[in-house]
Known about the structure:
The structure is a homodimer.
Chain A: H1 3-6, H2 8-33, H3 40-62, E1 70-75, H4 82-95, E2 101-107, E3 113-114, E4 127-128, E5 132-133, E6 142-145, H5 158-168, E7 174-177, H6 181-187, E8 195-196, H7 203-209, E9 214-215, E10 221-224, E11 227-230, H8 235-248, H9 250-259, H10 272-276
Parallel strand pairs in A: 1-2, 1-6, 2-5, 6-7, 7-11, 8-9
Antiparallel strand pairs in A: 3-4, 10-11
Amino acid sequence: MHSAILLKAEVKALQAANEQKKRRERKRKRRIMQGGSLSVQEGEDILQSAKVDAQFSIIAILNPASQTPLSIGCLLFPGFQALDAFGPLDALNVLSYSTPLTLSLIGASLSPISTHPAAHPSAIGQTIVPTHTFSSAPPLDVLLIPGGYGTRGSLPGLEDAIVFIRARFPELKYMITVCTGARLAARAGVLEGRRATTNKRAWLDTKEMAPGVKWVAHARWVVDGKCWTSAGVSAGIDVVLAWVEEVYGKEKAGQVAGVMEYERHEDSRWDPFAVACGLPEDE
Amino acid sequence: MHSAILLKAEVKALQAANEQKKRRERKRKRRIMQGGSLSVQEGEDILQSAKVDAQFSIIAILNPASQTPLSIGCLLFPGFQALDAFGPLDALNVLSYSTPLTLSLIGASLSPISTHPAAHPSAIGQTIVPTHTFSSAPPLDVLLIPGGYGTRGSLPGLEDAIVFIRARFPELKYMITVCTGARLAARAGVLEGRRATTNKRAWLDTKEMAPGVKWVAHARWVVDGKCWTSAGVSAGIDVVLAWVEEVYGKEKAGQVAGVMEYERHEDSRWDPFAVACGLPEDE
Lengths: 283, 283
């Protein structure tokens, strides 16, 4: 379940040491296929290697201190929707009480970034401090992309955010978008040909903007490969808890939701908001 | 419904003008009680005054532009829980698209304030920029108090936050606490003798800490006079939407929840988390 992620560093550390072993194994394999046999010592070496690998796996899973932290990044831009980011982020905050994670809040510069939407000049908002810029962000396993009014139009720096998504997508294990964050991912071209969803009030607009994406109208969230896209605003909490379940197991997802006193929507197709918006049935 | 709040400024503006009128009315009343009579002009003056007052009320209710913005404050302290604040705050952000509000994010100083919990040194967190200090905060109609690990122990500045709550409580129209934010309100003494609720994992502790409060175990939120207290973390979204319904009507609360794609819990007694924590039945 979570071995792929959690053992990443252990695998890397073992890779160099294993390289020589593999060469020896290939050599032995060739010898066996050619009708040869293994010495007792060679057989014991193989058993010992397998045991060491298994111990590494068990230690990594059972002992959080030995886990390599997952490197999570959250994209921030002027006019991002507060709950799009802070629903998932607080789920990750709670997860990090028991599971090693690192978090980078990534913006165009290190200046604080406001949720204030240009479309509503008299609206209230909050201002968040980023930890990294597009150029200083560390390697990422997970990129979280919130939506909001700021995803529309051509705000200064938004093109840089899109370039950042495009550049970092190949290294990601998971990309998670919330609400109209999917529009930024679509503009970066990384959702092309994939199934995805977005805010239901923006669905028709978004479909028109990015016709190469297989937009799903009725969905709380959609998973296609490493792309996890979700519906509007509070759907970000559900998609991240579903992701926690995928990576760390159902029990951990339940624990995080319990600490948040949040009743999860566990059915990714649950979507009364698509119905309320009169969106067409999916094919 | 919302006249008490929305007409506050109009009432104030009229008070000075009305003072002279009242003195005249009292004089007229005395005259009538003493068997005297009103002139035609005096009768017309009374009718005209009543009409002007009624027009002021109607204008204030129908035309948002004439509404005095509600002054909302949110208390911030190191180790506050991110979603405790940002669930309610994003509901208010959305409300502010159509309804005039002002927001003050109030901390011990203007330095950015981190959600990072001292209890979990390796946990991730986010950092928010306050707009006001305890001494520079404007007059408030509503004070929102999030919870989090930071409400426990004796962090520097926490005593000042408690003093701030105590000092500002009398002027408030509404105080809204989320999660263990109720502990700060209880420590400020403003919940004494009132019904209130809090995070269900902290309920027993909190009850012991503040035995003078009538703690309700099974509740998503509790209203007692102007005190709206809610359960853990995500319950803040429900209590604020319930408050929006109380102040601005059910339709507006539904609109805000719809924009957030959030399925409200509208029953304040809904609380599977109290059940999961094995809390005793309420008397």
